[in-house]
User: Fold this.
Amino acid sequence: MSTDSITGMTPTNAKSHAHARPGWVYLVGAGPGDPELLTLKAARLIAEADALVYDNLVAPAILDFVRADAERIYAGKQRGDHTLPQEEINQLLVRLARAGRSVVRLKGGDPYTFGRGGEEVETLAAMGVPFEVVPGITAAAGVAAYAGIPLTHREHAQACVFVTGHLKDGSMNLDWPGLARRGQTVVIYMGLSGLPHLCAKLIEHGLPADWPAAIVQRGTQPSQRTVTGTLATLPARAAAAVLRAPTLIIVGTVVTLRDKLRWFEEAPDSTETQDPPL
Ligand code: SAH
Assistant:
């Protein structure tokens, strides 16, 4: 086996293939933004692909890895801006693969975590297009590490739940009693516009108003910003900080560990407001 030019390593997993093959689709997780958080496999496939289909969550720094002559197709997916409808993306992947391209379908974070990766692969499987899936660091893991908030901790949380906070008809269809529990961390994806609703619901279902919560903008990227507070104070603080998507919300007493464990952001900026210890 030859040594890989990007990683300097010899691929060893016989079941997954080292190189992007014509006619295949690689559903690849790009991680939360910092290009160093790409897996070796993702970096190699991105550098080799003939065609790359990506959405807005993929950080620009990661596109620097793409071959200069590769075809780049932006598939959109900003709130309210569905550049290509999901069904068209699915069909596009099939067409590119059938035209003999090696296709990387690049998704922010992990493709199987709130990424619709399953839907895209279902189409590929149904159409007989060969594919591989490369997991990525999901926003929860990346944001937690770079914001100094462990998702579990023996003294704080024995469970961690990931939910989507996407608003449908102005509310979130979530298992509120299951979420409003002590000893657990709740991570909310796509929750920025629903933040006031989310906090109100968690209080209504039994969590104290002074339960810690944080919202992190563009985690792992140079523009990362974190606003901390409580269920009662976070919505107003987040609004005052004028955060931009993507943002991730973390609810639970693990948030208090940030005071000791932060390392990535500079000293507290004007948007950060500390609460007295609980
Ligand atoms: N597949 C992705 C999630 C897609 S859903 C993953 O595994 O991370 C999109 C949501 O992910 C955003 O609304 C936001 O809540 C979250 N997200 C993705 N990247 C983020 C980042 N760098 N910082 C904060 N939140 C992020």
Q: What stands out?
A: The chain is about 25% helix and 20% strand. The first helix runs from residue 40 to 48. Strands lie at 25-29, 51-54, 71-74, 103-107, 131-134, 159-164, 184-189, 212-217, 225-230, 247-251. The longest strand covers residues 159-164.
